[in-house]
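User: Fold both of these, please.

Assistant: Here is the first one.
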Amino acid sequence: MLSKLCFTGCQLICSGVVTADMNLNCDSYLFLTGTVYTPTGKPLPNAAVEIRILDDADPSLVFRVGVTFSLSDGTYGVSLPRIPGRQYQLLAFSPL
């Protein structure tokens, strides 16, 4: 079963942080895709998307995995290892 989450730029700006819970299958890797939007709802090209791993046992531990960038239509995709007991956090930054 495929799930799709969609957040508007207004939701992200007004909330500051948006958290979404979802169950993923048990494969050894995940392929996460998404679209970065401007506050007005337009796809944002060249946005930096930083990927972090959070430790459930110690929330103060944050591991920065890397950065990917959105394409001309605002979309991005990244392959990540599935690590039990960890959560991924993605942060989007607009280009200069």
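And the second sequence with its predicted structure:
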Amino acid sequence: MKSAVETLNPTRVRLSIEVPFEELKDSLDAAYKKINQQVTVKGFRKGKIPNRVIDQRFGRGAVLEEAVNDALPKFYTEAVNEGELNVLGQPEVDITELKDGELLAFTAEVDVRPEIEIPDYSGIEVTVDALEVSDEDVEKAVEQLRERFASTNPVERAAADGDVVTIDLTAKVEGEVLEDGVAEGVSYTIGSGELLEGIDDAVTGLEAGGEATFTSELKGGSAEGKEAEVTVKVTAVAARELPELDDEFAQMASEFDTLDELKADSRKRLENSKQYDQATQAQERVLEELLKLAEVPIPEKLLADEVQTRKHNLEHHQLGQMGLDLEKYLEIQGKTLEEFEAETSEQAIKGIKTQFILDELVNKEKLNVNQEELTEHLMRRAQSSGMSPDQFAQAVVEGGQVPMLVGEVARGKALAVVVEAAKVVDTNGEIVELEDDEDVAEEATEVVEAAEGASDAPAEEKTEA
């Protein structure tokens, strides 16, 4: 076999391949055997039809077609390996010559990873939010905990903001009560915004037994999005009572003996959370600067496939779970289809650039992923997907996606290398020293996943660049 590579542009090549006919022997034998099992000829046992009879009865062309289809992937792969090409996606194959007994010639056009020069990233400098926890932040956190331990007591008065009311609802559209438009015994906290728009005004001021009617757009069900006339009846009113903020509350709501100890713990938790947010912000901004520094040609077909994959996953997975279609989603987002497609294309370009640059950095820095790192990453992805680690691992293995997970971890480690070399300052002008531990690389992996548009579900379709 002879092959030649022609570079069409930085991201696409054409392979020209010539195969001497004798190298098709194994594929021809397999073709005759396959046809033998599929056809019957009077006078011959199934599977025992001579090759010349198959040629006479079914045509030599059918045999050649079967043999060529069988042989092409093997010769294409050999040519790719010989040319040391890093191909992306499936090739477009064109058979240019087929001479029975002499020669098979074909071309294969395919996208390839562009050669990327890693820029000098040592001068990257980014600014992040300062790590500050105010007394107000602590008070808000304690107040939220206090809300969780609130009690309710029935009252004989009109409902007011913050009260918990028990209500019955009936929704009508065009004068007809909806089949799924009746609900009884619903518990609702006035002011929470958890039900229909307009319900707070309707129930405020009503005592038990009181009734009101209002108009609202339905958020779900068979008439989602339609205007409905909703009748609400209050059957009970209860006042929420918050516990006193004292040592007794601290003992009830936590493992601490005093309120001061509880507040100190709340401050520490907030500091840890903000430290995590600060590290993530640093990684995101360093990645943005890295992408600006590098020139990365984007393969057109890969981009088109990635855009289509993102749209498909949004429509058939994420929106489907929320009971929305693309049209309704765009309406909620206040975007036109053109704006959505432009945004999706921009996100896809960012994802491809991120993968290309960081993969190149993985090779340059000779970064490896050990079993412990892969296991930790798999467990986090399993938790995000709502699956058990065993279920997630099984789905990943069955889907042949282990290399994809390894790639995610490796790219996270590559980003961590760039972040370590960058200068990170906060809004107060103070140098931020990010902790150098295993968590940094895992946090960086999450940032990379977000940039690439990775999904938590292993079964999701995703273009592998």
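The chain has 14 helices and eleven strands.
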